[in-house]
Design goal:
The chain is mainly α. It has 10 helices and 2 strands. The longest helix has 29 residues.
């Protein structure tokens, strides 16, 4: 039953990863939090364990999504290369920050973050302005943007798509290109973040079976296996939708998850 749960989570998260260019963490984190709480892991480490495991699964999800988008020539590799150093540094540092925060503070921060990004994305999707930007990407900002996106991604257990997609879209990339490039950026974020959560979690002496630091191995295997398959299907669907529809769907997903985390943070 436990393995089936992880496989179902992976199926949904993988499809979302391919469709929206995110790592699937916006879905994986809250569901894993609920599963781990029912397993009796304790409130002190449950959120951290959900975040670390989510980042570990994104390593696999991002590869599948990246390959699918690359076939459609939607990954702008020079942009990925400029963002990567900052993404790696920021993601590892974000794991250290998350380790120092309590579960209540993490939920509050995640809720506020997703609410702000979701409102902004929905506002721009409903705007009458042309969604296709004409300005060139200013590469001078990529390193700094990578650091900020990396820190936020590790704190929220996501692949960074909720920040990377809007950033690249506003910098000049079409929505499909922003999603594809964001999918590729998810790999360095997830790799550095997962290593960070394993490293800092190992020092907390977590007494839970099948874990390495803040990463649950069984959950990682189950979710990764299924998400690798469904991410490609989501990526195919993304190229049949208009940029405006993609933005609205993406915004609705973020707004829903923000309400979940804010409610949890207030009720705890």
């Amino acid at each position: 039953m436990e393995l089936l749960t992880y496989l179902l989570i992976g199926a949904v998260a993988g499809f979302a990863a391919g469709l929206f260019g995110v790592g699937g963490g916006l879905i994986v984190v809250p569901i894993l939090y609920i599963v781990f709480m029912h397993a009796g892991y304790g409130e002190a480490v449950t959120m951290h364990l959900a975040l670390g495991t989510s980042l570990a699964t994104i390593m696999v999800t991002s590869i599948s999504s990246m390959l699918a988008h690359n076939k459609n020539h939607a990954v702008i590799w020079p942009v990925v290369g400029r963002l990567t150093p900052g993404l790696v540094l920021g993601s590892f540092g974000g794991a250290a920050i998350a380790d120092a925060l309590s579960e209540e503070k993490l939920q509050l921060v995640i809720g506020i973050f997703t609410l702000m990004v979701g409102i902004n994305m929905f506002r721009t999707a409903c705007s009458q302005q042309n969604l296709q930007q004409t300005q060139l990407i200013n590469s001078r900002w990529h390193w700094l943007a990578g650091v900020i996106i990396g820190i936020a991604s590790a704190l929220f257990g996501i692949g960074g798509g909720s920040l990377t997609v809007p950033y690249l879209n506003r910098s000049g990339l079409a929505m499909q290109q922003a999603i594809g490039t964001s999918a590729a950026c998810g790999l360095p974020i997830a790799l550095a973040g997962a290593i960070g959560f394993m490293f800092f979690g190992a020092h907390e002496q977590i007494h839970i079976e099948h874990t390495i630091g803040y990463v649950h191995i069984y959950a990682f295997i189950g979710i990764s296996f299924m998400s690798f398959i469904t991410a490609r299907q989501g990526a195919k669907v993304a190229h049949y939708l208009s940029p405006r529809k993609l933005k609205k769907c993406f915004a609705c997903l973020l707004l829903f998850m923000s309400l979940y985390f804010l409610c949890k943070a207030v009720l705890l």
